[in-house]
Design a protein that fits this description.
Elements: H1 11-17, H2 30-39, E1 48-49, E2 64-70, E3 79-81, E4 85-91, E5 93-98, E6 103-108, E7 112-115, E8 121-124, E9 132-138, H3 140-145, E10 151-153
Antiparallel strand pairs: 1-2, 2-9, 3-10, 4-7, 4-9, 5-6, 5-8
Length: 178
């Protein structure tokens, strides 16, 4: 692509172009969410992402919220990425594994968990009944807008459970690095 010539315009016009309407409050009734979660396809990266009335996935500028479900006996793939996560454990129990340090911590109803960018992690549901249901807030939209959506997977593939077996990995689509 050839180099193009830019243009300019008055600063006050620039400011007017970035005036936004104040958003209205939004509610997502749990009864509706629970029904959609039960019927949705579960991938290890998420099940449902909340959207605003206009269909946009940014709940507040630069952030999104997604439900993620880890079924009994399953785990997510160890991975790290350029965005942070703030998780709220909605229901169930499981284990967070920080793959580079081998540290684990149990998770249960009501826990809140922050995973900063580039911390290798995965979740395991070592139980036999009930999904580990996480509500995940992240700045993935912000990082994507900045062309900084990078990730790596398989940080410590082949980890085993306390029983000495490797839990099955949930089926998931391949994720590109950009």
């Amino acid at each position: 692509m050839p180099v193009q010539t830019g243009r300019q315009f008055p600063y006050l016009e620039f400011r007017r172009r970035h005036v936004q309407e104040t958003p209205a409050p939004v509610v997502w009734p749990w009864e509706t969410l629970a029904g959609e979660l039960a019927a949705a396809e579960h991938s290890e990266y998420g099940t449902l992402t909340l959207a605003g009335p206009d269909g946009g996935h940014e709940i507040v500028p630069g952030t999104s919220m997604t439900f993620q479900s880890v079924r009994p006996g399953e785990r997510t793939t160890p991975h790290a990425h350029s965005w942070w996560h703030l998780y709220f454990v909605r229901s169930g129990s499981g284990v967070l594994v920080l793959d580079e340090t081998d540290e684990t911590t149990g998770l249960s109803d009501g826990d809140v968990l922050l995973i900063p960018a580039w911390w290798a992690h995965h979740f395991e549901n070592r139980g036999t009944e009930g999904d580990l249901l996480l509500l995940n807030m992240s700045n993935l939209p912000q990082q994507a807008a900045l062309h900084n959506k990078f990730s790596r997977e398989g940080i410590r593939a082949g980890r085993t459970t306390a029983e000495g077996t490797t839990p099955p990995v949930s089926p998931h689509p391949q994720v590109s690095g950009v």
